[in-house]
Each structure stands twice: as structure tokens, then as C-alpha cells.
Write a structure and sequence with these properties.
Blueprint: E1 6-11, H1 18-33, E2 37-41, H2 50-57, H3 65-88, E3 94-98, H4 101-107, H5 115-121, E4 130-135, H6 138-148, H7 160-176, E5 181-185, H8 190-204
Parallel strand pairs: 1-3, 1-4, 2-3, 4-5
Length: about 220
Amino acid sequence: MANGSYFVVIEGIDGAGKTSIARALNNILRQTLGENVLLTEEPHNESFMGEEIRRALRRERELRPVELAQAFALNRSNHLKNIIECHLQKEKAVVICDRYLLSSLVYQTRDDITMADVYQLNRWARVPDLTIVLQVSAHIAYRRMDERSKSARELFENDLPTRLKKYCAGVELLRGKGQQIITVEGDGELPEVINNVLVALEERAPPWLRIQQPLLLE
């Protein structure tokens, strides 16, 4: 944030509503900051290894857990260099990223690769100014996924109670590294959740990051 930029990450289990919230936040911040706001996501399709990761998530290609963790780290490095950090060089620039390092700590860990291992792979990654974790119940998340798509679930869209426990452990690890992470209640409808996110952001954002409260969310 040294040159007046702000890097926000939206996190949560599958079905938490991350993408909807990230898009809504992008639309709201653009009302006052225009093109200084960038919405992006991970894995980033256009960055190195992006398509291979997507194929693995769709179960079209098999990668060992360590290979997948390495692929995500390479994708993140390229994404940071060519997209995120380039945008954050601008004055009063905001990047909103749908998933980031916390997701790697949750989804790339297995018996043979620990959170500490995954963190070490990504130890160079830029630290977000704020990570917002949408806290939802497994029941609500499963319902939203079923409403969203009747097709086969992706590689990690199962066993959500275990994912919730891993998120708690990942948050604890990153907070121990000094990262600013907050949880926001996400079980409600979109307008309620985005309002919770805006309140949390306003309490922590720099003064120049003006937020125009929405009159109506579609």
C-alpha cells in the first residue's frame, strides 16, 4: 500500500459465493474509482499453467498433489508479475482477487504435503492488504452448488466440512505470519453479504478508497 494501492482477496469454500461477492464489490468500487479497480481470479487461466490446472480440476488430467501445488505456485508467480503487481503500481489502484494463497493452503494439502510445505512453495507471494473469508455452513454451500450446476462437481467440490476445518487452520497459519484476515458471515442473501463485506472493508481501507453504498443489487 506504499504507493496508494490496495490488494483485496476474497476467500471461502466452494459455494461460499466468492465470485458473486467479488463481482459485486468490483462494480461498487468502480463507481468511484473507475478503471483503477481490477477484478481477477486464481487459478488465472491466461497465466502460466492456468489451463493445465483447469484441466486437472475438471478431472481431465491427473496431477499428483505435489505437482498440483507446484503448478498453482507457478501460476500465481506469473499472475502476480504480469497482472496484479502491474496494476498495483498505479496510484489509488485496487485489485480484487477471487482466491489466493489461502486457497492453496486449503486445497493443495494432503497427507504427503502439509500446509507448511505449501506455504514454503509460495513464501515469495505478495501479501494482500486484506483477505476477506466468507464464512458459510456446509449445508448452504452444498445447496448453492446444486443450484448453480447439475453437472459433475470439480475435483475439490466435495467433503466441505473438512475444507472448513482446513480454512480455520490456514487462517491461523497466515495470521501467525502477520497477515490481516477477517471473516464475514456469508450464509445470507447476496445484498446482506455484500453489505457485511462493505462494512468490513470500510473499517480497514485507506481514506482514499471511497465506497459508494449500492442502492440496489441485482
